[in-house]
Specification:
Length: 319
Amino acid sequence: MAGHGYEGGRLDLPFVGISTFGKRPYVGDWSAIGAEVAILGAPFDSGTQFRPGARFGPRGVREASTLFSFGHAGAYDHEDDVTYLPGWVRIVDIGDADIVHTDTIKSHANIETGVRAILDAGALPVVIGGDHSINIPCIEAFEGRGDIHILQIDAHLDFVDERHGVTRGHGNPMRRAAEKPYVTGLTQVGIRNVSSTAKEGYDAAHAMGSDILSVRQARNLGPQAVIDRIPRGARVYVTVDIDGFCPSIAPGTGTPSHGGFLYYEVLEMMQALARRHEVVGIDLVEVAPDYDPTGSTAILAAQLLLNTLGFIFHARGFS
């Protein structure tokens, strides 16, 4: 990659330069994306019901991702004996959707426009939030593009229909997704403890085809068995709320919930998913960097995304 590593005449260490995702090229023209993967920031957090701050998630995750940009092509994993994300997997950062303060509809429309541009380019959309409401326009961008199944990693069910007139907040996205005729089902993993969704929300989720697993249930099954519950042949969209992880390793979020997943539990689910299914899109949400002065939450998010992309493209034959 031009300008990276010794070949370009610069060492270009992680703390040098501009913080695009993984220090990949920035593409400002959404009609000329030309890549296998496009990163889009969605710095919207007006859907939060407790602590704001996820609007800074895209910047925080991008900066953390530079840790994994030491100039050499690919990432060698000695356990798998695979070099993931070799240089011919083109990843670009297309910047952020424009956010209009206090205007959820316009902000969501701008996010949807960005995801549609990525899909039109034939690239895999990876959207960094922002609160979980940004999943709503992400899923809406898939209208007319075939059926999808949603895998959600989260502490909360997010299946509220409406609360005081709010239908597009961060407690609503999975309900809005389940209403789409092209969303054939949801696998909701990590759901635990006292939730933002009342019992009627759980009843509605089950009635609309959701498969709901707590952290303890998922651990008892194991990562492969969790993924095996997704119907074979399904095209899968992945939405990861960082509060699906235990706040002992991911405190930088607005609604932490103890008892969450540890890193390898989710990583192994992502690897199993990539081997078994076509992954058509990813969003990762609710990273609020200011609640974690160590920066480890953002590093966790960046590391999970890069490893997941490695698994996806290795399964597609990019190795």
